[in-house]
Write a structure and sequence with these properties.
By secondary structure, the chain is mainly alpha-helical. The chain has two domains: 133 residues, no CATH class; 148 residues, no CATH class. The chain is 36% helix and 4% strand. The protein has a two-stranded antiparallel ribbon. Strands 3-4 form a two-stranded antiparallel ribbon. The protein has a two-stranded antiparallel sheet with strand order 5-6. The longest helix has 22 residues. The structure holds heme C (5 copies). One heme C binds next to helix 2 and helix 6. Keywords: Signal.
């Protein structure tokens, strides 16, 4: 089915709908579009200045789509993912592709500009708006390049999901950084490499997409083809609510929730428990890996560290090992004793855990990256892999 496109006139009507919804939802009595500036804490939209608006003007066929989208993360104009640049007044070109519909259109040349680069000034206040996915030009985007350099062919709206949910760095960046440095030698030049967030498409392409740090001599599962009709982003996610309906899964799976789905008859985490979802194995091995990363920082790198998922760059120093982040002049002390070995294991840990849907996007690849990272750390820690009883 061709995607509905929005020529100019109905765009205005659409904006009218959004304004009506925005003001209704936030009980604004006279939300003139002018007031809906970015600095305004109450109105979550930067609206075009074309009010006043009437709810009755909303096109009926768009009604449900708008209401669904409006409640989704893509429309959450208050989120850090859309407000991070408020103080700068413009969204940084390196970030705009994924943090604003306007930036996305600029990147793909859908606004008539050169494709493959954000060359315009991108205003703050944008979200993943309708014209990000409903855009005639999108059908001409035939491939998407991943941070690994892998170029993946795409069709239609998938181009949009894969552009924004691919992360920002890949195992290759880690490999280039550590190059031939001594594996267990702390190096103050090394910094934590963050794969970025909501990296679903990277997980999904697996070893073929080369998102993770793939250890020499190991084979990795490729793209998770799964099964028709669950072979694309939108066959599982409603493109507007972004939610995953559970009913369709039950055609093929027996489970109480997506998290409970399991096909594997063997246990990957050494628990022997195959009554739980495969997600549970992934989580358990991720926990094991994090414990080993911390032991390694302490025992091998000689500098204990702490992970705090709420603050970038996530790893901080705990020199005296008391479990509290060291502070210096009121600021947390960023971890500074990375070794090539801890850097690559931590990248994989973050990549897997940065995708809450890893178990449905590519359970096998997730398990492989975790296993190999655990095995790599087990060596200097003197841990016997046999005793951990994990399966790759
Ligand atoms: C390839 C696409 C892409 C690029 C490029 C990108 N981001 Fe993101 N970023 C995302 C996605 C997707 C999320 C949403 C994660 C979520 O909250 O679910 C995100 C989330 C964020 C968040 C919110 C994190 C949180 O904890 O809520 C910040 C901050 C951020 N990005 C900063 C940046 C900066 C700064 C740049 C440029 C230097 C950038 N991003 C470039 C895709 C991208
Ligand atoms: C992230 C991408 C994305 C965004 C953003 C988006 N859509 Fe859609 N929309 C889709 C896809 C994909 C379909 C096709 C769904 C299908 O085939 O089942 C679709 C279908 C539709 C349809 C057809 C009926 C339906 O619901 O399937 C309408 C109408 C629509 N969108 C309107 C909108 C409006 C209005 C907005 C903004 C408020 C919007 N869309 C934002 C991706 C998107
Ligand atoms: C222009 C970039 C962009 C495009 C295109 C895009 N997304 Fe997103 N997506 C984001 C950002 C940014 C967030 C995080 C927003 C936030 O934190 O509120 C996000 C959040 C999500 C979430 C998380 C929802 C939640 O509740 O946290 C899902 C699922 C998602 N997107 C799926 C998709 C799918 C499927 C497509 C393709 C149809 C798609 N996205 C297209 C940028 C994009
Ligand atoms: C087999 C079904 C399936 C497919 C295909 C699929 N997903 Fe997911 N996705 C899920 C499930 C299940 C979750 C976890 C949802 C949860 O825990 O609430 C999820 C989670 C996510 C999240 C994180 C949501 C959050 O709460 O932060 C994002 C982003 C996402 N998916 C994007 C995508 C993109 C982009 C694609 C295509 C490359 C895709 N998904 C393909 C089933 C799927
Ligand atoms: C048409 C049948 C079909 C549908 C529908 C389907 N799946 Fe699957 N699923 C499979 C098959 C077949 C496998 C095994 C694939 C493989 O290992 O290569 C699988 C594997 C999985 C796994 C990995 C289980 C394990 O132990 O490795 C998860 C998780 C999963 N599916 C989640 C989902 C979710 C969530 C949905 C609904 C959104 C869904 N599936 C819908 C057929 C289906």
């Amino acid at each position: 089915m061709p995607l509905p496109l929005f020529p100019k006139p109905s765009c205005l009507i659409l904006s009218a709908g959004l304004a009506a919804l925005a003001s209704a939802a936030f009980a604004q009595t006279s939300s003139g579009a002018e007031e809906a500036g970015v600095g305004d804490a109450v109105v979550p939209f930067a609206l075009p200045q074309s009010g006043p608006f009437e709810p009755a003007d909303i096109e009926i066929e768009n009604d449900q789509a708008i209401a669904d989208w409006f409640r989704s993360a893509h429309a959450n104009a208050a989120a850090e993912a859309f407000r991070h640049w408020d103080d700068e007044g413009q969204v940084n070109a390196a970030c705009a592709t994924c943090h604003s519909g306007e930036g996305f259109r600029d990147f793909h040349g859908l606004d008539g500009s050169e494709a493959g680069v954000v060359d315009g000034e991108i205003d703050v206040g944008g979200v993943v708006d309708c014209g990000t996915c409903h855009n005639a030009g999108l059908s001409e985007v035939e491939e998407v390049t991943f941070p690994s350099g892998v170029v993946h062919p795409v069709q239609g709206v998938e181009a949009s999901c894969l552009t924004c949910h691919q992360g920002r760095s890949a195992g290759k960046d880690v490999a280039d950084t550590i190059a031939d440095r001594a594996l267990d030698q702390p190096d103050p030049e090394l910094r934590f490499i963050n794969p970025h967030y909501a990296t679903a498409a990277a997980t999904w392409l697996g070893g073929y997409g080369e998102a993770g740090y793939q250890y020499d001599g190991r084979d990795y599962s490729g793209r998770f083809f799964h099964a028709r009709p669950v072979e694309s982003c939108n066959s599982c996610h409603d493109p507007h609510t972004l939610e995953v309906g559970f009913e369709p899964c039950l055609t093929c799976h027996q489970a109480d929730s997506p998290q409970d789905i399991r096909i594997a008859r063997q246990s990957y985490d050494g628990s022997g428990d195959t009554s739980v979802g495969i997600r549970s194995d992934i989580e358990a091995n991720a926990d094991t890996l994090m414990r080993m990363i911390r032991d390694y920082m302490d025992e091998v790198a000689g500098a204990p560290g702490i992970y705090d998922g709420t603050r970038y760059p996530y790893f901080f120093s705990d020199a005296n090992g008391d479990g509290a982040i060291d502070m210096d002049g009121g600021e947390p002390v960023v971890y500074g004793a990375w070794t090539p070995r801890s850097l690559r294991a931590t990248f994989n840990w973050k990549l897997v855990t940065a995708d809450p849907g890893n178990y449905a996007h590519n359970p096998q690849y997730s398990l492989e990256l975790l296993y190999d990272s655990i095995a790599d750390l087990s060596d200097p820690l003197g841990i016997d892999m046999e005793e951990l009883d994990l399966l790759r």
